[in-house]
Amino acid sequence: MAATIRDVARAAGVSPSTVSRALASSELVNPATRERVQQAADRLGYRPNRAARGLITGRTGNLGLIVPDLANPFFPSIVKGIQARARQLDYAVFLADSDEDAAAEPGLVRALAKQVDGMVLCSPRMTEADLLAVSAETTLVLVNRRVGALPALTLDNAGGMRQAIAHLQALQHVRVAWVGGPRDSWSNRERRRALRTATAAAGMELIDTGNFAPQYEGGVAAADLVVAAGVTAVIAYNDLMALGVLSRLRARGIAVPDQISVVGTDDIPLSGMANPALTTVALPKEAAGRQSVDLLMSVLHEGDDTAPARRELPTQLLVRDSTGVAPPAHP
Amino acid sequence: MAATIRDVARAAGVSPSTVSRALASSELVNPATRERVQQAADRLGYRPNRAARGLITGRTGNLGLIVPDLANPFFPSIVKGIQARARQLDYAVFLADSDEDAAAEPGLVRALAKQVDGMVLCSPRMTEADLLAVSAETTLVLVNRRVGALPALTLDNAGGMRQAIAHLQALQHVRVAWVGGPRDSWSNRERRRALRTATAAAGMELIDTGNFAPQYEGGVAAADLVVAAGVTAVIAYNDLMALGVLSRLRARGIAVPDQISVVGTDDIPLSGMANPALTTVALPKEAAGRQSVDLLMSVLHEGDDTAPARRELPTQLLVRDSTGVAPPAHP
DNA sequence: ATGAAAGCGCTAACAG
DNA sequence: CTGTTAGCGCTTTCAT
Predict the structure, then answer these.
(1) CB A128 within 8 A of CB A147
(2) Rounded mean pLDDT, A106-127
(3) Which nucleotides along chain C are within 7 A of a protein C-beta?
(4) Could you tell me the pTM of the whole model?
(5) CATH code for position A305
(6) Chain A hits for B110, Cβ within 8 Å
(7) What's the domain range around A268?
(8) Is residue B105 included in any domain, yes or no?
(9) Is the residue at A302 inside a domain?
(10) B14 Cβ contacts chain D strand, under 7 Å
(11) Rounded mean pLDDT of B133-157?
(12) Would you call A324 helix, strand, or coil by DSSP?
């Protein structure tokens, strides 16, 4: 079967421990011996068994990743970023999709905890209590959520919302609707809160249409409430929902942006391809993925000496065709 | 730190092996003892170390998955299917994204091989030789590709193309363009071949515009060639590309489906949301994911006794608004 | 600079 | 039914 370290040792005429050293810390072993071992290893196609190594070193070289829903285009981008960075660092990654089921998340963490050095939880939906509880099982880094003193990488939700409101204000909008995402979502709460503050400061009115599934269908469902609210602009929790709104508005013969302006969040690949192209708050998704890995590494290596590891990445409003000057108010 | 099997043994006043047995094969141990062990385990929050278990049993309880590009909406659906089925079977899954780099794939397989019981390779781009070579490292199941006698789950590409051509023929189309995807892609070759056969049989003409990146941008780039070819219909390798074609046609003021009909493949979530909604060959993506795991399990358990494990899933043309009756030919 | 021995956490004979 | 023994593949003292 597969060659073990003993096979290599035998082939090179040394002991297993020498092989181990030769393949790892180069300095502690005679160059000639090292060469011999290296060749034997190559010849036999030797690949160390990481599980066995992990058993003794306590380091697995693996990393866990949990996302709520891979079908939401927001997450694949993050996963790609994480993948890429993990691969550079020679880490393998376990992926689990919770299917937006908050109750399932702790189980997923626990299932993986023993096999990884740490995990990245992307937009976890589970309760704070659960989060704190599972944080004892392994090293955690949160993405898109902030809880207690847990290491976290967030995106500047508030800044994004402020930019959106400033943009709409410049276009003369006064009444704006908010189409909310999952109630359990931290970023949903953050965005809503920021919106409240920003609209109040701008002397604008914010109509909350409630919480909807963070998908195309959710936006479709919300669109009629938006129309009924008599607003001239709407901001949706994410692009998928914004696209749903767009589609429903078109179906009802309501012109975008002439009658209603629409703003999304995420800048998923397809938002630029929509017709009209969607104005949206762009989030640095792949960068967030990469940096979350870096954050995890720093936590893993520096121990718990410094301040809580946190980082916030900037967001950027992309103005496209779905927003325009507000129509004149009715008499 | 974390409780080991010895801790549980001590707490329950039995030997580690009894704990092992009590927690696994229920029959071989005294019910009373078993109860005691179970309680001790619960109390200590014991979770077996799967890596250690795998070391001795040879089964890791892990499964590998490699996809070319998670940013292509086709793959997340498959990954979700695989995830779901794997979880049911209590398997954890390693995910790697090769970023459409055929040369990187063998390395990814080898990196994971030792830590998994088997792997699913989704639309692998690597050469047949590489594929055969890595198939020695671990149990493989191919999705969306067929090579040698390797276990494979495929989708009925030919059937899908036949349905598309029959549909276009019914709509009076005679000249049809093909917008190809990655040259290395097996399904790309399959679809093209099927198209050749089907058009020939129908007395239609097929114009091949070449190979493009399997993304929105690829479709945009191909669209002008489609127009220049003077066809009344176009079939794209995938929906992303079809959407790109759609967008470029609109930009050029060419009406769809009035002047040109457009057909995609995959039925990604957004194809139904496009305007006009995209006619496409739907592939059972999540089902393919689930069944690929089942296939892997059957190969793993049944050994290599029976015929090569293969399965082909049916495809289904979804007729939507992007296809219509061909415009009358020019005099 | 290298080898021998011990052991990571677990399961699988083998006794009893 | 249960404990003892051995060992999966690897790294790491501790000697030499």
Answers:
(1) yes
(2) 96
(3) 1-5, 7-13
(4) 0.93
(5) 3.40.50.2300
(6) 47
(7) 157-283
(8) yes
(9) yes
(10) yes
(11) 96
(12) coil
